[in-house]
Amino acid sequence: MLKVCIDTNVWISGIIFFGKPAEVVTAALNRKFELVLSKVIVDEIEKNLIAKFKFSRANTHKLINRILQVADLYEPSGKIRIIGNQHADNLVLETAFLGNAKYLVTGDKEHLLPLKIFKHVKIVDPATFLMQIKK
User: Fold this and answer.
1) Integer CA distances (angstroms), 84 to 30, 43, 87, 104, 111, in order
2) Which of 3, 88, 92, 120 is the most exposed place for a label (fewest CB within 10 A)?
3) pTM value surpassing 0.90
């Protein structure tokens, strides 16, 4: 089955708003592909939902538990340093790499999307990813 890592920004957009990120999140929760994640990504989702979007801790924990039910967790060590001074982005890249993901789905136009590919991981935006899985 296809392995996919979803960056925090897609999770947050998909949970809060509609559109392509929401379709990616729904596909992940419905197990349309194998979800590759790390505690770093999960913690960032939780932090943003509570701090920026004022989700309750209880609702956030329910959502995180739902995500964890469908995810395979990997723990990046911080060895990959492709993007200078962007520790979190490097950990996301490493998560995708460790999980042998074919795709890293992100909305990060500044650091991640310009890379296009890292090792075996194709770095794409939500719309591009959805077109690929519909082929």
Assistant:
1) 35, 22, 8, 19, 9
2) 120
3) yes
